[in-house]
Amino acid sequence: MTRAMKVHRTGGPDVLSWESIELEKPGPGQIRLKQAAIGLNFIDVYHRTGLYPVPLPFVPGQEGAGTVEAVGNNVKNIKVGDRVAYAGELGAYAETRIIDADRVVALPGSISFEQAAGMMLQGMTARMLLRETYPIQPGDTILVHAAAGGTGLILCQWAAQLGATVIGTVSSIAKAKLARAHGCHHPIIHGEQDFVAEVSRITAGKRLPVVYDSIGRDTFLRSLDCLRYRGMMVSFGQSSGPVEPLAPMQLALRGSLYLTRPLLRHHIEKRHDLVASANDLFDMVGSKRIHIEINQTYALSDAAKAHSALEDRTTTGSTILTV
């Protein structure tokens, strides 16, 4: 037996149920992982509310880190006692879990369990956005929405390291200071500044090659107005709600724009892509070119409180759940 947070019906944070569950032995190609820390992400909220449907009941959560307790048959290169981490694998909100061995990566000694839990999904997402979705070039000026969030802070730091000038939207003066301290050259505060006008001012009317938007409904259409001809709109989240349907002609009328909605799992589906992505992230964090801000920590049994804080947008940086 182990304990886990389960969802038997979709709804608010109150549907998260802390209970004992049976844990089978790891099958062929699987490991049993004793988790030390688990990451909190908005996709956990989408699963809990049913916005992204998954079969009920389920254990939410997409990332974590811990120590291998047991291995099944045909598992190579992983042994009991190894430190590992993962992202993109549903079922993280548990003290101990079963997971396919080829979906975990070895955790360097320089990276703590807490760091790993706070960065695997967000950090590999940032790498995907900056290196693959729209490969940043030195001299690019870009816009990052929710710049003080977990993914936002990593995006700002990594983009700055690649030679970009980073414009970022935030919701308060305190978040603006945090974003600026993590590579955002031009923080813009919602409600006090018009981000479209500010982008035009900062770029002297030239606008941007790319916008990275995890907010969705509240920012999507106006973000299109920040793009230069043939610019790229990258929608990778919807914390304010789903984006309304868009007629393709709107992209043409705004300057032959490109629109994409990338998912990390499609970029790390193959084992070698997963390892390459994680190793790039480990290198950036291990060399201190990127700092992971873990600004909220909750016990796993208090996951409902963590969800409420995330949805209320009172969090900054990464939030982790500890076991």
Automatic annotation (TrEMBL):
A molecular function GO annotation: NADPH binding
- Enoyl reductase (ER) domain location: 11-321
Q: Which Pfam families match?
A: ADH_N (PF08240), ADH_zinc_N (PF00107)
Q: Does the keyword Oxidoreductase apply?
A: yes
Organism name: Bradyrhizobium icense
| This protein's GO CC annotations | cytosol
The protein, known as: Quinone oxidoreductase
- CDD domains given in the database record: QOR2
Q: Does the keyword Nuclease apply?
A: no
Q: Which UniProt keywords apply?
A: NADP, Oxidoreductase
